[in-house]
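User: I'm writing a short report section on ligand binding and want a predicted complex to refer to. Could you take this sequence and 7-deaza-7-aminomethyl-guanine and write out the structure as tokens? A short remark afterwards would be nice.
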Amino acid sequence: MTETFQFKLLATDGAARRGEVSMPRGTVRTPAFMPVGTVGTVKAMYLDQVRDLGADIILGNTYHLMLRPGAERVARLGGLHELIRWPWPILTDSGGFQVMSLSGLRKLDEKGVTFKSHVDGALHHMSPERSIEIQGLLDSDIQMQLDECVALPASPDEIERAMELSLRWAERCKTAFGDQPGKAMFGIVQGGDVARLRERSAQALAGLDLKGYAIGGLAVGEPQAVMLDMIATTVPHLPADRPRYLMGVGTPDDILKSVARGIDMFDCVMPTRSGRHGLAFTRRGRINLRNARHAEDMRPLDEESSCPAARDYSRAYLHHLVRANESLGGMLLTWNNLSYYQDLMAGIRKAIEEGRFADFAAETQETWARGDL
Ligand code: PRF
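Assistant: Sure. The structure tokens for the complex follow:
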């Protein structure tokens, strides 16, 4: 832990990096997976469990928390960490992406976004400055600039307009954030699937000398190969001494391939959301517990897992819980999935330290491919 926000590179293996992002509330070991705690809860989990699985940081959402319970209210209650009882680092997304995907977006212009709340239908306005103000009221450790993410496919003109707007908003967010040595505001690279726009965005953001850089606008409808290409195009233009965060990604396979291209941080609803929908991630691949073939299968998900949910409960019982819509089903599968993701990240970190990341990735992928579920 440190008084100021710092990134330290501990080892590299090809383009893969092993590092530490330190701030007053704790140190994040990278490559890191950040469980998603959208409304101030990692759904179906106690935060003690999340911590015990090895999470150094979780994610919260400006959009949801500003609508309910409200940013000023969270501040009066002592801030997000105090309210949810998670004293370690929290990263908050700025709201732009969630406005697009969840609300009735009414207007987007230079000033910001106007949208209709999905909670009560009320109209709200969010400027880049207000997004940073809200993230400050939440007392977020890593704040994100307000950006515009366009879903793919989109025309190059539309992608360029949103990317340039996001760059202007990055400058305004940097000014609004000011000088806060213990915290960070990350810029977000946009540019869709157009290489020259990705380069322009990364270079311009690098010129702003921010404490970290995210890559946004990916995993929004394009094939994985395009996403990986855009990551490889972007990373060389970002400063090597700052953390790189790939937003909203992804599957275990996406994570391995993105680490290989120099990404340090990830977040995704996949382990939590798919757990609540009956899907288990395991060393040998994915298991859909809704499937009738598990009805009388007394084997656990993975007898070698570090997680009791994977070791101590039969597939038959998990199948029953999922079919009966019992909350314990979602709780056990979320626990299993977050455990799988955190163990994967620990394996990745160790492999990079030992200079055998490529072998680790190949072996991990072979074990999935072999199936043998
Ligand atoms: N911008 C922001 N949040 C995001 C994204 C983005 O482009 C994505 C895209 N995968 C996920 N979350 N602000």
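A remark for your report: The longest strand covers residues 6-13. The chain is about 40% helix and 20% strand.
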